[in-house]
Amino acid sequence: MTALIRRAPSILRSKFNIRYFLSPAARHMEETGLYGCHHLKTPKGFQRIVDDAIERSNELVGYISRMPSASEIINAMDEISNTVCQVVDSAELCRNTHPDREFVDEALKASMRINEYLHYLNTNLTLYDAVVKAEKDKTLTSEEAKRVARDLRVDFEKGGIHLCAEKKDRVSQLNVEIAKCCAQYNENIAKEPGYVDVYPASLIPKNLHNLVKPVNRSTSRGSRFNIREKGFRIVTEPSTVSAVLQWTPDDEVRKMTYIKSNSVPRANLGVLDKLIAARHEISQIMGYKSYVEYALQSNMASSPDVVSSFLVELSKAVQPKAVEEFESMRDFKRRKTSQHDLGLEPWDEAFLARSMKSSAYNLDFSVVSSYFSLSQCIEGFKVLVESLFGMKLINIPLAPGESWHPNVLKMALHQPNEGDLGYIYLDLNSRPGKYPGCAHFAIRGGRRISKTEYQIPVIALVCNFSKSKYSTNVRLNHSDVDTLFHEFGHALHSLLSRTDYQHFSGTRVAFDMAETPSNLFEYYAWDYRVLKKFARHYSTGDIIPEKLVTSMQGSKKMFAAMELQQQIFYASVDQTLYGDQTLSPIDTTSVVADLRKQYTNWKHVEGTHWQTRFSHLLYYGAGYYSYLYAKCFASTIWERVCKDDPLSLETGTAIRTKFLQHGGAKDPAQLLNDLAGDGITKYQNGGIIPDVTSLCRELNLRK
After folding, report:
1. Euclidean distance between CA atoms 248 and 75, whole angstroms
2. What digits encode the pLDDT tens for the residues 86-107?
3. Nearest to 667 by CA among 683, 652, 685, 653
4. CATH classification of 34-161 is 1.20.1050.40, yes or no?
5. What is the CATH number assigned to the segment(s) 368-557?
6. 92 is annotated as an active-site residue
7. Of 59, 79, 402, 487, which is the active-site residue?
């Protein structure tokens, strides 16, 4: 259920052992199964854990139907959530990372079965009536329990529990259609990544040869026929496209790559139309004008007008600086080409930005990466937790059968007085068939089982870092270091959370606050006081020079306004596509083209449809603005709490005790104000927006 899938103390003794993960066998190196779950020694074990979860949950549903006390109802609801989420989350991680196709297929089947069961929970009036009873009951004294009851009731109603049978069935059909659209959208991207063939091979820089595939074609030269000309095929998947656009001097190669990467898969135009229409119909059945209005009701923003006013305010602040940056890039291109009437093209941006940064700060990006081997970055994690929280990240041997790949590492977050606070799997190396990006996956949330026992969280951090063709170890570009620290911020949010209920554990917070910890920890990847503790040259062991870090910091700010403007554009597209619909279906490409012109200085390229590969429209539908909220919140927290002494125990204690340990158990605006002081949030049009002052000051914007 929306309520239960997101978020679950045992009140009943049961013959079913639902606390599968990280069992004692795993700690004592006995043979176990995936993630320390004995049943997952084989792929078919997924069937068993689904069976057990459904049986245990049905037992709890029966208990709730007898209407026990309010606190017992909330405890039982949370245990259902805990039971179901462990299956959902472990299957999701397996589907995205396991190299064995049989495990992936069984995990997919488990996901489908448990989601069918979730529909039963979503529409169970007995559970809804029990939650309503608990919310009204004055004996429910814990503020967190009251918040769980209110949240569960709202999520039930958001799912249509109160509707008549006909409308409820229609909502169910639409949710199935939405799930199919999301799956089809991703499948189309995987099946049709697109490619361009480039001849001659000399047009591709040598440092990109590990990303492209050799091809050849027949040609003729003079009287000679069937000469095999060598070239390269660029598969236009995101990481390759990014590298090609940054490093390829040839305009035509960049143009071909940009256009192809933004014009496939064409089939997703229709898929996106169906997705938007289905979400719009659900919102109307629920009594809302638009999907945006429906989706935002439980967020800090609360309404489309609040988000719109925030985006307009930020856009006005960033526009003058963005124009300056755009014009400086255009002038640089004209000087380099000696063509004084030449304009900028979208495929110029990444290449010229890198060239200008390198020139202005004498930056050699290969030198930068030599200080950031993957192993040293993991040492950086250890520096952070020890300095900030007085804790250690301790390597733990994996039990036989526990891991899904030989490269996976496992660590415990350990506090001397509190013991192990959580476990983290690190799966950071690239391999075929693996989830293509970087992500934080929950396996088990934290919750209080009794006055003396706490179920500690288990998570996985998944990335895709690869060795270069000429390297024996994995060395990261600094943008990858930034991403790695971002994901570690999510990990710390999960591991340090100490909520009573799984429902609010870790990142299970208001949607528009979820990215704040991750954005905050990005700052640690740029501060010399932090970097000098772990960033060492892979061969000499020398500490990264302060002068180099200063140059990196300067280059980061060179086009910060344009980059922020791009994020505002993305958020505006998201809000508009899911906004009030007067045409059905809307022309998504026209919307994107108009908004690009309105919010950026770049032109739309005819024939392209960037929105067909922007998967945030699926999972962050109507919520992409959250990234911008997070940037503003994180900037204020860094300036007020961390900047003076980022590695002090005092700083870490504030971050932990005033923010991270509460998960979603407290009002998000109150948490932010408790940590950073009054003024970090503002009330506007009935909702909450971030104060943008710190971010504007950081980026030298004229607010």
Report:
1. 58
2. 999 999 999 989 999 999 999 9
3. 683
4. yes
5. 3.40.390.10
6. no
7. 487
